[in-house]
Specification:
This protein has 240 residues and is an all-alpha fold. The chain has one domain: Leucine-rich Repeat Variant. It is built from 13 helices and no strands. The termini are far apart. This is HSF2B protein.
Length: 240
């Protein structure tokens, strides 16, 4: 009888933990979705970054994103876009994107939240092509926004595996992922000081045929940007 009582108590404790986790995820999704909307306001972002919890928030954001990706099953084809877990992580990524869209936000992220930038690059390389496309796009938008800051561009471009990461993302079947990967590539190409450090690796590994293929895409924005990139790449003495 004592063992049965203990087993019942254990099952009840497990159920309470599950309910608490579901509650926290639901609350996180709701709060962060609200904050995502508010973060489009510059004054709201300045207030947020001026608070004592800003660094901790972005540290937790990195940890939450990483936990989310680790939880994805290997054979996952479709995501429940309406689930609290998905909404939670998309809202976090959206907040980072909006923060990085402002000069003060870019400076804050590259000065105080490099762990988050590292995590986003790592996760982009971990997720299979075609998976979590909206999440990938938001992270790529964040990195592109950070790259507008020269210090941010140097940090991102000098991260180990950055060039192979771009080539990996350019092979994603989603046009938006390819579009934003090209935007990030263009940031590197158009900054002479940064390009000088990456030129050799780019010249040796650039998936040139893939960019040519993207320049023939049915998506007008992707086609136009790929053509711009091909022109920009002439500085590396490539020829189509």
């Amino acid at each position: 009888q004592e063992k049965l009582d203990l087993r019942q108590q254990l099952n009840e404790a497990k159920q309470q933990l599950l309910q608490q986790a579901e509650y926290c995820t639901g609350m996180g999704a709701a709060v962060c979705t609200l904050l995502w909307g508010m973060s489009s306001n510059e004054e709201a972002v300045k207030t947020m970054l001026g608070g004592s919890k800003a660094v901790k928030f972005f540290t937790i954001t990195a940890q939450t994103m990483e936990s989310f990706v680790k939880s994805l099953s290997e054979d996952m084809k479709q995501q429940d876009l309406d689930s609290d877990e998905n909404q939670f992580v998309l809202a976090l990524a959206g907040i980072v994107t909006n923060v990085a869209a402002l000069a003060c936000g870019r400076e804050f992220l590259v000065s105080s939240s490099c762990e988050l930038l590292d995590t986003m690059m790592h996760l982009l390389g971990d997720m299979k092509p075609g998976l979590c496309t909206k999440f990938k796009v938001l992270m790529l938008m964040s990195l592109y926004n950070v790259s507008i800051n020269l210090k941010g561009l140097k940090y991102i471009s000098e991260s180990p595996g950055f060039i192979p990461l771009l080539w990996w993302l350019l092979n994603d079947p989603d046009t938006e992922v390819c579009l934003h990967a090209l935007r990030l590539l263009q940031s590197v190409i158009l900054e002479p000081e940064v390009l000088a450090k990456s030129a050799s690796e780019m010249r040796d590994t650039l998936p040139f045929q893939r960019i040519i293929a993207l320049s023939r895409s049915r998506n007008a924005d992707l086609q136009a940007l790929a053509k711009e990139i091909l022109e920009d790449l002439k500085i590396l003495e490539y020829e189509a």
